[in-house]
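User: My collaborator sent over this chain with a note saying "see what the structure looks like." That's all I know about it. Can you take a look?
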Amino acid sequence: MVQEINYTTISLVLDSWEKVRRTKGFEQKVGLILFQHLFKKSPQTKILFGFPIDVDTDSPELLGSKRFGMHAAYLVEMLDTALNMLGPDIELLTEIMLELGAKHIRYGVKADMFPMMGESLLIALQATLGDDFTDELKEAWVETYGELSGDMIRGQAQARKRR
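Assistant: Without extra context I'll predict from the sequence alone. Here is the result:
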């Protein structure tokens, strides 16, 4: 559960996220890198976001798509909101992530898709932070994303049991 992340890990993640936020157009930049990687490694996820499975991830058609840009920015904004809740609002964040997981069932998101999204996030962070993306920082992000996505997966499981 998100509530179990220690202060040192939270501090590392938040400090690095602040560096990311200082990048001009960070929502678009991080989101585009993340989705390009996700779509390359897991082509079936293109369908979840309303794109043909055979669309080239480097094509001007996709990269110039308003919908693609909106999805990219929205995901990063959601991540930003969640990260801002680490610390004082961490119990509320757990509840929100459980609800968000249940909501993602309607979109066709399955539990086995979360690790690929996490890998894609790490790729985007590494590309954005460069040499500042140390092994220690990577581990902090792995733990944090693991807890956030773990709560979403638990939310999906709870919602399925209620059906």
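A starting point for your reply to your collaborator: The mean pLDDT is 94.
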